[in-house]
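Q: I'm writing up a methods section and want to include an example of the input and output format. Could you take the sequence below and give the corresponding predicted structure tokens, formatted cleanly so I can copy it straight into the document?
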Amino acid sequence: MLLKFEVYRDGRQWGARALGHAIFTQARSLDKLYENIKEAAHLHFEEAVEAGENLEILILAEAEVPGARKVATG
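A: Here is the clean output for your methods example:
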């Protein structure tokens, strides 16, 4: 099963929410957030995991690049 998580910065915290599922988590660092995402996904789908279902996690995130400018094409 493929789970997609949207990762975002909310002030001083990082947050993540699963697309299409009621799974939310947050942390102060990205490393801890990734740990929390794995734990939350396994807890949410505990029965499926115990039955042998494989969980794949895809992280979707936006990033700011200092000094970059938006360019219109067309």
